[in-house]
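Study this fold:
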Amino acid sequence: MKIKSQKDFAAGLMFLVVGAAFAWGATTYSVGDAARMGPGYFPLLLGILLAVLGVMITFQSLVVETEDGHKIGAIAWKPLGFIIGANLLFGLLLGGLPKLGIPAMGLMVAIYGLVFVASLAGDRFRPKEVAILATILAIFSYFAFIWLLNLQFPVWPSFLTR
């Protein structure tokens, strides 16, 4: 069978592998049933749904004819690096690294770091717009996670709250 859309084929395989990995990982938790869901129920269900979606997309890539075969182009290394780096920076700023003496900077600083670094992945960097976006995201995150959900994690840098 010939692959008629390389992009869809690769995306479908990626969804299938990630979904299967999540579903398999969820089986290490108590799954329960629909009436009494355990901690593994939701990840198992999402993993199965993602794997099924991957099978459907992969099948479609083999059946549906495309004009040019939707060839996979070169990997966009710059955006990939900045997006992955922004997520790593967010985790580092949020919780710190006590073993290396890096203090927790809290949610607000972590969100600003995430937004500014992720915005470097694009073609144009507009600091004013990025600052506005980061501020709005920080305000909504504070109200959603700290005020409404009452989650317990650092909001401000640890050296300011002692």
Observations:
- DSSP finds five helices and no strands in the chain.
- The chain has a mean pLDDT of 91.
- The first helix runs from residue 6 to 26.
- The chain has two domains: 6-63, 77-148.
